[in-house]
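Subject: sequence -> C-alpha cells, single chain

Hey, anyone have a minute? Need the predicted structure for the following. Not urgent.
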Amino acid sequence: MKKSVKIALFILIPIFVIGIGIFVFIQLSTKSLEELGRTTITTPDFSHLEDGDYTGRYSAFPVNVELSVEIQDGKIIAIDITKHDNGQGKDGEKIVDDVIKAQSLEVDVISGATYSSKVILKAIEDALIPDSK
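Reply:
Had a minute. Here:
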C-alpha cells in the first residue's frame, strides 16, 4: 500500500469515528430533550410532609440533576443542588429561588436554560413525590 494511502486512512478513519460519535450524541440529545419538552411538572402538596430533607434526581440527556429539598412547617425553605451536569444551562439553577418564593413548581423557566430549568423542577418533584418518574 502506498504511503499516501496509509496517511489518508490514518487521518480519515479517526474523523469518521468522531463523526459517528457526534451524530449519536446529537440524536440522543435531541430525543431526550424533545421528551423533556412534552413532560408535565406537578406541584406536590408538601403541606403534609414531615420536616426534613428530601432528595430527588432527574436526568434528560445530557442534563442531570441531583438535589435536596428542605421542608419545614409544610413549606420549602431551601433547595440545594448537589449535582448539575448542565452543558450551558448553569443559569437554570436560579429557578430554585423562584420555587421557594412561589412555594410551587409552576414557575417560569429560566430563559437560555430551559432544559436545565425543567430538569431541576422534575428533580424537585421527584424529591417531594417519589413516584413521579
